[in-house]
Write a structure and sequence with these properties.
GO terms for molecular function: 4 iron, 4 sulfur cluster binding; metal ion binding; quinolinate synthetase A activity. By secondary structure, this protein is α/β, with parallel strands linked by helices. It contains 15 helices and twelve strands. It folds into three domains: about 110 residues, Rossmann fold; about 90 residues, Rossmann fold; about 90 residues, 3-Layer(aba) Sandwich (Rossmann fold). Helix 1 runs parallel beside helix 14 and helix 4 crosses helix 15. The structure holds 1,3-dihydroxyacetonephosphate and iron/sulfur cluster (SF4). Iron/sulfur cluster binds next to helix 9.
Length: about 325
């Protein structure tokens, strides 16, 4: 406890000295979540990055998130405690691949998930996150061809909700979410008939969850396809209503920490407790301390690329709740 208190005091002192705000994604390790000034999903953190008054942002998340913060706030210093914290989903679509895809589909509107590099964002018309992907695509006329990338499962979710066959989806995936499979989810749901299901739309099992509901194996109202921020809101609502139903959570396991804080009386269980993102977990308390002490690792985005990417990111943060 003394160590933890000393760590906390030192981090907060250094942050103040540097005029820095610490932002942490919901998948960070609990020690980082507990010390951050703000914890949230990728949309909430992007909005905060654009608004916070501090001159430095320390981004405890993965590289594309810190890059997005830099795109939105080019005059601020953006630090990430380990610049090697990448993302397998962002790696699944390069700017060259996107340019070739656009050339095959002239006139199409490009919607890219925020889990992309700055170079991909620069080739994009509107970015989105899992919180607002449906709203972003709904803002485009239905007859317009949309190229949606890179996540195939989020793309399939948007197609399903909007019922549009004009949406073409790239075949990328996140190795963590794709690994949470439908058979595992079905077995857990069968063993826990009262459970609610919180499923992230990046999961390969999102389709299975909806299939279970349509087949009557799980009551439809119990299946919720949610971004990480919306999972926290659902947990807060369960707590307010005094719900006693356990919740099966299909996403990266870091999520469970915020859910338990939001609803201490609800029993949250991971569908797959090995679903841990090695990139998110590269941000450790030691590296956060070093980042604040030494000003490392500074995130830079080529100003020409950033300028092109900014419009698509600004459209993203303006859409949805
Ligand atoms: P959210 O946008 O729901 O926070 O999910 C982002 C994600 O997958 C980051 O890895
Ligand atoms: Fe990327 Fe998946 Fe890790 Fe999220 S959980 S940062 S999408 S690899």
């Amino acid at each position: 406890l003394t160590d933890r208190t000393a760590f906390r005091d030192e981090v907060l002192r250094l942050a103040e000295e540097r005029d820095a705000v610490i932002l942490a994604h919901n998948y960070q390790v609990p020690e980082i979540q507990d010390i951050a000034h703000h914890v949230g999903d990728s949309l909430q953190l992007s909005r905060l990055a654009a608004e916070v008054p501090q001159s430095t942002i320390v981004f405890c998340g993965v590289h594309f998130m810190a890059e997005t913060a830099k795109i939105l706030s080019p005059d601020k210093t953006v630090l990430i405690p380990d610049a090697a914290a990448g993302c397998s989903l962002a790696d699944s679509l390069t700017a060259e691949q996107l340019r070739a895809w656009k050339a095959e589909n002239p006139g199409a509107v490009v919607v890219s998930y925020v889990n992309t590099t700055a170079a991909v964002k620069a080739e994009t018309d509107i970015c989105c996150t899992s919180s607002n992907a449906v709203d972003v695509v709904a803002s485009i006329p239905a007859e317009q061809t949309v190229l949606f990338g890179p996540d195939q499962f989020l793309g399939a979710h948007v197609r399903r909700i909007l019922g549009r066959d004009t949406i073409k989806v790239w075949g990328g995936e996140c190795h963590v979410h794709a690994g949470i499979n439908g058979a595992e989810l079905a077995a857990k749901a069968e063993a826990e008939p009262d459970a609610e299901l919180y499923v992230h739309p990046e999961c390969g099992c999102a389709t299975s969850a909806l299939y279970l509901a349509s087949a009557g194996a799980v009551p439809g109202e119990k299946v919720k396809i949610l971004s990480t921020g919306d999972m926290v809101k659902a947990a807060e609502s369960a707590q307010r209503k005094g719900s006693r139903a356990p919740v099966l959570v299909a996403t990266e396991i870091g999520m469970i920490h915020q859910l338990r804080k939001a609803a201490p009386s609800v029993d949250f269980r991971a569908v797959n407790d090995r679903a841990s993102c090695r990139y998110m977990k590269m941000i450790t308390p030691e590296k956060l301390l070093r980042s604040l002490r030494e000003g490392t690792d500074e995130v830079t985005v080529d100003p020409v690329v950033a300028e092109k990417a900014r419009a698509s990111v600004e459209r993203m943060i303006a859409i949805g709740t």
